Structure of ATP-dependent RNA helicase HelY:
Amino acid sequence: MSEDAAGPADSTHPALDAFAARLAFPLDPFQREACERLEQGRSVLVAAPTGSGKTTVAEFAVHLARRERDARIFYTAPIKALSNQKFHELCTEYGEGEVGLLTGDVNLRGDAPIVVMTTEVLRNMIYAESSALDELAFVVLDEVHYLGDRWRGAVWEEIILHLPAEVRLVSLSATVSNAEEFGDWMHAVRGDTDVILSEHRPVPLYQHVLTAKALLPLYVEGEGGLAEGGRLNPELRDLRARRDDGRHGGRHEGRGEDRHARDRHRPSNGRGYERYRSTRDRARGGAPVRRTRRISRSDIARALDETELLPGIVFIFSRNGCDQAVRQCLHDGIRLTTREERDEIRRRVHDALDRIDDEDLRALGASEWIAGLERGIAAHHAGLLPQFKSIVEQLFQRRLVKLVFATETLALGINMPARSVTIERLDKFNGEQRVPLTSGEYTQLTGRAGRRGIDHEGHAIVVGSDGLDLEALAHLSSARSFPVRSSFRPTPNMAVNLLQRMSFSRARDTLELSFAQFQADRAVVEQAREIRAEQDSLAGYEAAARKATGSDRKRWEDRARKLRRRIERGRRRVEARTGTIARTFERVVELLEDLGYVEAGERGSFDVAAYGRLLCRIYGERDLLVAECLRRDAWRGIDAAGLAALCCALSYEPRRDDEPEGRWPGGAFRPAFERTLDVWAELDDLAQRHRLAAAEQPHAGLAATMQGWASGWPLERTLEHAGVGAGDFVRWAKQTIDLLDQLAQATEHAQFAAGPETERLGELGALAREARRRVRRGIVETASSS
């Protein structure tokens, strides 16, 4: 383990020396150490701040793989946008013929020596025992802290547990507070894994608050101007105090201030602060502001422009808010581009949208979107069409778009470094209520600020308000890390895949190696230590009771009785946590046995039945429900458009718990969906009897729209009916296609004896392929192939 341990280049690392000679910058100590460990044949977990250059270590792994005869490397990313971005970067470096891409949507050169893929694709390859794993030397797990994701985190653990032992892992993580624990687990399950830690940001980050009067540093410069510490700027406290006084008849804030005293606290890029102040006042009619007012998004744009902190990202935790911000800037005449830049933007946008017809562009509101781009302003969120998001990213990287209003999805690793990051508020709506940002979220967001090799410093800005808690902001800005907590749990699909590859006892033992169990066991160790200390105290109480008389004896006996109860409760907690993953696996297998997916064999083994083998190819939260619907022929009589609607209902997750389903599609969908809900209710009861978490009930909120789209509706009608953004519709269309693909694959490889069952499943597989063809058209097709 290392904390930025440095070491000079030497001849014992010839591959690293050759790699470093090609770089335009010297390797940082943590990069060099991680690369040296890789060249020594070890795996590494690299935890470092955003923008510190972790991917250089992954690029060295690619370099190592290319030096070895017939060796292959898989580069995994958590989201398709990141996979696409890394694919293009590697194609530029090594040539298109050397790099493949597998994302579910795209299957391009899967036999190449370098293959970029999503983590789910790799997990599925492992379970299918694909021959593509035969020559695999390295796997890069980018953004491996996703392991804590509630919905998808288990995929990372499955990969780490089941990859062949000889494959070296290059795991890249944001700065997490339990990196040592994570690394200890990886070393325990895979061996020879080193943890390389770095807290150093190559580009220093300064913290600011944008007030209605000026942009002010959060910390006093010269006394810890960086986020690492220092004294809070007293002017910010004074401003808050004056606002409070103003509410009770106090003087106007700022009257009688010593301007020179204020300027002493400006950070190193102080030019532009007064220009912002004067420009802002002129924009509001020439007079200084006489009262506290809400800072508009146009004000933010002007402030960043005048203080030379563009290109910048403004995080607004609302898609609608991002779109409104762009409209407000357009209405207020914000323009951040030159004529030459506008011409370049028009040309690039025209080339990028060439494959989308004019009617669809009108339905997408492309003209307003392009108007924003030409002024250097754009929104970025999940509701945007993927092609639109990609264009925004490319224009921002080329410094043609100067200001992006984005939701937090932009912080997930996409390469869009900025000079400044602005956060509009320090809380967000989580679907139920407004909750404060965590230190990890704040770190992820502000980590975008400061472009290595371009900027000497980055700037994190929080928009001031009357309710801004300066102490809370100081805590967020100084706490750089967050813990990774496992979300791993056995699923029916996981169980049949494991039982098809290994014995029940070996599968059980393998799952006990999960990070979830590792963390639970460590917690158990702490609880056991507490119990031992309490037992020592109990012995002392009992000894004192034996010696005492009268009321003193009763007091010691009462203390001992309470402590025994506490010890017993602690013991029950320890027993409950020990082996929790294995017990859950046992319950899943019992459920599958009840349903006939697995059959008990000799000496405690299990055989996977025909529908169990079909379940092996169905992934997702409703894996067992889909398999049961196939087994029971619940979708009989459905047509291609209706099957697309059903798969949409089985994939769709509403953004709110109270989201209405709307009107169900017509035709054969209704009886098929009603039978699906009946199956779900039975499985829900069965899961409760086995003390297992049940899958969420299918939701038909977008089913009618998907049926219409699969029936040939034009885009404009589809989006009007859906009531969601184009990006949302495309995302759920892709999820629908993915499940249709799974149905086609599962039924094609179903291992039943020739007869009606095989014929029925074959017909359903053909219907799934037809439904897939109908959904994958227009903007869905261009988004899938871009």
About this structure: The longest helix spans residues 515-547.
